[in-house]
Each structure stands twice: as structure tokens, then as C-alpha cells.
Amino acid sequence: MLVDALGLSPTTRVDLVSREPLGAGSVAGFHVSADDGAVLTYFVDTSRRVVAAETGVLAGTPEEPEARIWLHPADPHLPALAPAAFSDAARSLLARLDIDAIGAPELVVYRPGRRAVLRVPTSGGAAWVKAVPPDRVSAIVDAHSAFGAAGIPVPVVRGFSDQGLMVWDAATGTPAADAPWTPAGLVDEVDALRERIAEAAIARPARTALRGRLDWYSERLLAVLPPDDAAVVAAVVARSDREWHDPGRETIHGDLHFGQLFLDDRLRITGVIDVDTAGRGAPSDDASAFIAHAAASAVLTAAPNDARLWDLVSVALERWEGPGVRARTATHLLGHALGAGERGDLAQCRRLLVVAASVSSGDRDGLSAA
Questions:
Q1: What global pTM score does this model have?
Q2: Residues 6 or more apart from 21 whose CB is under 8 A from it?
Q3: pLDDT tens for residues 303-340?
Q4: How far apart are CA 360 and CA 100, in angstroms?
Q5: Gyration radius of the chain over CA positions
């Protein structure tokens, strides 16, 4: 579809770099190598979501889109991204909030169609700019307010617009990934945090949508893995289907992992970020997201530095294992495996599949073998 739409020659190099579910379909990113050596990033979107304005090539109609292609950063779901991604526009934007930008924006996180986060150097330290779908702004601002009222240390929101742009201060403390925590100590801190999150007054559902991803991940994994691995994928899916309990509802973060946390010198949580997905949901959603992220990080980390991460996985599983946690954790891990497989890293993909199988079966000894 991309090759035809752009009229690319058969010799043009096109590399898939990302793909994830969005709406009724998915959004896939491709690096396209131009004749002059430049690499452009295009996205093919089959979500069928209606946007305020198209920014690229459209198949179908604006009211009933079938597929669209856009060139980064012209994400039609995030109309504020393209203006904020350039120095002059970012400087003007921040000046309205009495923030003096002194450098170019740096794109730190980008999930096409969902959100983008940019770091902007200012005279008073880093400012963080987030582009989100316009209809998500009020919910995110409300979540920040509710978390703050519950005593949760979220960054201060400096300003926002109904076009889908938010600006906030940096979180307080050291990123947990760079702090000398112990597994048991960090899990204790997360337990206390989850208790405070449960008290936050948010009525809307959390934006997790994890159950719908199980089949999506597994179907696409079968397309990138050797046939011999099909039975392992099928076993993970079958066990997860059987154990997908959904007990209770309380306020959850929705995407909780140690990458969202900041710690002080006493290794206490002093900052929590990315509360976009917060709302009422199953407590096991936050537990499983935390465990899966730690496991995926362990797979990516070379020995002996991976040992602390595997210990964190073991401690968290022992503390939180219960109805639905194994199934949700395994689903997250299938997603991590799919990402690795579509990047062409089959070794990492299969390691993550082994971890998913071990978690779903309750075989903790199999984690160290991965």
C-alpha cells in the first residue's frame, strides 16, 4: 500500500519499524530511504478513525476512512504534534506560559495516533510538551488533578489547549531506571503508591483495552515466528483465556511500570508520570503492566545487570500473583515479543515468548532460563 501510494521504485528500501493496534485496525511505521540518503518515516493507518483534518493520502472518505498514509510528524490524530516539533513554534508556545525555551524540542516518546512527548530545554530546566488527541485533553487534566488531590506526586501542569497540547514541569527525583533500588524495596513503594491511586476520584474507565490485544498479538506473532513456535503461542493464549479473571474495580494508573516512577535519595517515590490512561479498572492491570515491563527490560539487559530486574519480576509475581495477573502479564509480553519479531530480532522475540509461557504457566524457574 505504501509503495503504491508513494510511487516508489522497486529498489527503494522500505523497513517496517513499528506496528500496534489502533481503533479497528493498526498503525504501522516504515523508514523509507530517499535517493539523497535521507530517511523519511511514513505511517500506514487502518484504524478507520475519523480525524478533524487529513494530512496525507486517504483511501475511502473522511467520514468513512479505510486507510491513510502520513509523513511524520504530520499525525492526523495528534494535530498539535507537527507545530510543537519545530523550534520556533515550540518557543512561541512556551513563551505564552512565561517559559523561556533555549533549545530545540527532542521527541522522547511517540506512539502514533495516541501520544507524543517532547522535551524542551528552558532557562528554568526541562519543560515537557505532550501532544494527544484533542478529545483526551480534559480527561488527562482531570486525572492529574485527581491524582494530586490523592497525594500522588504528579508533575505540575503548566498549561494546555483544546487542540491536544499539554505542558508540564519535570517530575521530581531520579528516574527509577537510574536509581539503586532493591527489588523488595521498590515493590513496597509501588504497593503504597497503588493504595493512594485507588483513592483518586476518577469515575471514567481506565484506557487499558488489554483483553482485545491478546488475539491481535498472537495472530501477528504467528506471521513472524517459525512454525515450530505456533504451539507455544497457542498454549499462552489458551491459558490466558482461561485465567482472564476481572475481579473488582478501582482507580488504576493504567500503564504502571518503573519507567513512570521517580525516586528520591531515600528511594521513595517522588514522581509519577503518564497518567493519561488512569481510571477505573482491574487492579491486576497495573500489576501485570509492571511485571511485564520489568521482564522485557531484563531480556534487553546484558548479564550481570539483568539479575536485579529478574529479581524484581520474581518479587512482584510473588507479591501480586492472583486472578488475572498471569494472563495479563503474558499478554503484555506477547506484545513485546511481537515488537521484537517485526523488527527482525527473532532471538529476542523467542526469549520474550519463553518468558510469556513461563509466566502464564506459573513456572517461575523458567524465567531464569529465558
A1: 0.89
A2: 212, 213, 216
A3: 899 999 999 999 999 999 877 899 999 999 999 999 99
A4: 50
A5: 21
